[in-house]
Specification:
The chain has 7 helices and 4 strands, in the order H-H-H-H-E-H-H-E-E-E-H. Strands 2-1-3-4 form a 4-stranded mixed sheet, with helices on one face. The relative contact order is 0.11. By secondary structure, it is an alpha+beta fold. The protein is elongated, with a radius of gyration of 19 Å. It folds into 2 domains: about 70 residues, no CATH class; about 80 residues, Glutaredoxin (3-Layer(aba) Sandwich), CATH 3.40.30.10. Bound molecules: FE2/S2 (inorganic) cluster (FES). The site of FE2/S2 (inorganic) cluster has 12 residues, from helix 5.
């Protein structure tokens, strides 16, 4: 269970659910009867919740009158959909060739050790999600990573791990 700073995780979680419910209902209303609505519904539901909770996918299946397995199959097929909560900060460490030969794996290892999560996982406090990518298009800055929209290049393992503190 994740607790917020004031320790009222249950109440806040409940409030958050309540504030999202009207958005979800509005979403269903907008797409009712629309052909090919599954992917846009998944995208917009993910924007509302930050990921796709199983219950939301169940409700999408109900709305579209399709089996849950179909909704789940599409959500797991596309990399853009996330079935688990994501961190407030998304770290993408490049392990492409240029970064790899300049120590990308050591940068990744240092971050992994600092956060104690594996590739694709999120820290328990939902502060960070750690991912790897094959190229960030900034090979001249290798080894590099992105945190949210910021590109950080010419990293050392220590510098990479230390700069995470800037991201709340
Ligand atoms: S290989 Fe890392 S940015 Fe291209």
């Amino acid at each position: 269970m994740t607790h917020c700073q004031c320790g009222h995780a249950h109440e806040h979680g409940h409030e958050q659910e309540e504030s999202r419910e009207p958005l979800l209902r509005d979403l269903f209303a907008r797409y009712r009867g629309v052909q090919g609505a599954l992917i846009p519904l998944l995208q917009e539901a993910q924007n509302i919740y930050g990921y796709l909770p199983a219950e939301v996918m169940r409700r999408i299946a109900g709305e579209l009158r399709v089996p849950f397995s179909k909704v789940y199959g599409v959500a797991t097929f596309y990399a853009q959909f996330h079935l688990k909560p994501r961190g407030r900060n998304i770290i993408r460490v490049c392990l492409g060739t240029a970064c790899h030969v300049r120590g990308g794996a050591r940068v990744f290892g240092a971050i992994q050790e600092r956060l104690d999560v594996a590739d694709g996982e999120t820290t328990a406090d939902l502060r960070y999600t750690l991912e790897t990518v094959a190229c960030l298009g900034a090979c001249g800055l290798a080894p590099c990573m992105m945190v949210n929209d910021d590109t950080h290049g010419r990293l050392t393992p220590d510098r990479a791990a230390a700069l995470l503190a800037d991201y709340e």
